[in-house]
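Let us begin with a simple case.
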Amino acid sequence: MSRIDAFLKLGLAQGCSDVHLAVGVPPMLRMHGDLMPIKFRELGDAELESYVNEILTKKLQEQFASGRDIDFSYVSEDGGRFRVNIFRKATGIGATFRFIPRHVPTLDDLQLPGILAKLCDHHQGMILVTGSTGTGKSTTLAAMINHINQTRNQNIISLEDPIEFVHDSQRSQIIQRELGTHLPSFSGGIRAALREDPDVILVGEMRDAETISMAMTAAETGHLVLGTLHTTGAVKTIDRMIDALPGEMREQTKSFLGQGLNAVVTQNLVKTPDGKGRRAVLEIMVMTRAIAKMIATDQSHQIPAQLQTGRDLGMQTMDHSLLEAIKAKQIDPDDAYRFASDKNMFQKYVTDTSMLPQLDIGA
């Protein structure tokens, strides 16, 4: 049993989402969004490096020694599964362990809107799940793949960095491939997948122009492509897609988005009222002719208005989603206030008045 397993076991017993190990501070746990230290000494550089080396393969040790950050999946002695990132910083090395539940969640488990199941029923096009790091994008995508797996006879090829949720093939065949282990790059993985008779391709992260271009090609040629971007809303996602590709492809990209992009789902994780959990709150954009025209004419800034009027199609703004969750007592209003765009709408729900703008009495 590696010594790191003791920290991971403690973290799981406490119900944390992440375990952080870094030189110069004690081990820390991410508990419902907040980082909390455990009662342990500050970790030394040589000490932490020896811990880490116990769980690295020879290949990973060589990669880390060459100066590269490394990402991989790790199964602890008691069967807990983690996504791991190990890196170097000014004072030494650091490592982050993200807990991956064994149970693959369903859309109902996550209490996600019904429109997501309808989006999974598309046979081609692209669906993007976006948000900043740690907002549960991988979990939502796992639930979407799980829905397809349970309801359709498809060949699903999942390209991940690293593999997180492990799916068992049910009605569908699911092939999970890992960056660095089974494929050299996401773009190379998509290119290979197109020769493997896919129906659905999951791209763990569309992080560069070549990957985005290959994903667009896959969506245009009769496949359903699910992917992620680190963007915070439909407008920023569309702008990122356009800006990521060379200027000469701008019109082609806008044309694809109008015709091949099925939806953009953006999410945040917001604390529950008791502070003992977090709930996904979603902004949802479903492509319509009106939105396609806005993209074609560089009027994407008008899309939020379409989200407000498109509720019968399953669309919703982040603010509307937050408000509905507050009224249903599903999320903490103070935490929701942090994620709101129009904060004036949320001020009457805030209980911690120190969060609100203070009047300048001396003015």
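The second case is a distinct protein. As before, the sequence precedes its structure tokens.
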Amino acid sequence: MKLKSALHVNGFLVLAAWLVLTLVFGVAAAFGYAAAADGGDTTALIAAIVATVIVVLLLLSVTGLIVVNPNEAKVVQFFGRYIGSVSEPGFFSVIPLTDRKSISLRVRNFETQKLKVNDADGNPVEIGAVVVYRVFDSFKAAFAVDDYEEYVETQSEAAVRHLATTHPYDAHDAGRTSLRDGAEVAEELTVELRERTEMAGIEVLEARITHLAYAPEIAQAMLVRQQAAQVVAARTHIVEGAVGMVGLALDRLTAQGVVELDEERRAAMVSNLLVVLCGDRATQPVVNAGSLYH
């Protein structure tokens, strides 16, 4: 069984017809009972009974009137049997004596709790995400799962846990995707949630990580590690630039014939330039003024 449209007609037309017919047959029943009471006319009594039955049926038909709001669907059941859904907004009449369940088709968002899990490297992290979704199949949302809202919440937390265990917090190796790679991780989480919730008639529009941090017990140690990594990266960049500058200086001095350097002086100059360029403190120049005594 799958989603289908339930038979429905304009509710205003049905209501107008119901008022007219109820009034006509109600008056007919009243006159029939009056005539049967006065003259004992059996035909009038039978007509009055028939009119009464019709009035009762007309009263039962009122139970088929429904109001469907925008971005809402009514799932219609007749004594437990699914006969269709009405998703068109308006005032309608369906089969009387049916049970109707409202399913919202509006876009919703759900934010998971801050979950504490171990990432791919075994480090405990805190992670949370927000999921934006909507119902696209009212039949599946009503009958495929007990509670589609609870189902989305449970599957969202399971998907976030799985995402955290398959990626590291920081990717120290090239080619690995870390939890901090927002766009890639969000796309992966969205695709996984779509696969998990499709059977419940749910379409996941977007899923993004809203909270990501190391667990408190290792946060300080990881901060020191990150700072050390940044220092190493900065030093590496400085050394690469310094080596290039030293090579350029020596080439320019040689090309312009400013000074002739042997290997020993050349090595000393390279050492001095590297100290100046790579040092993290201001250098103190030393001026050789020569000897004061002869």
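The chain has a mean pLDDT of 82. Residues 182 and 280 are 34 Å apart (CA to CA).
Keep these points in mind for the review questions at the end of the chapter.
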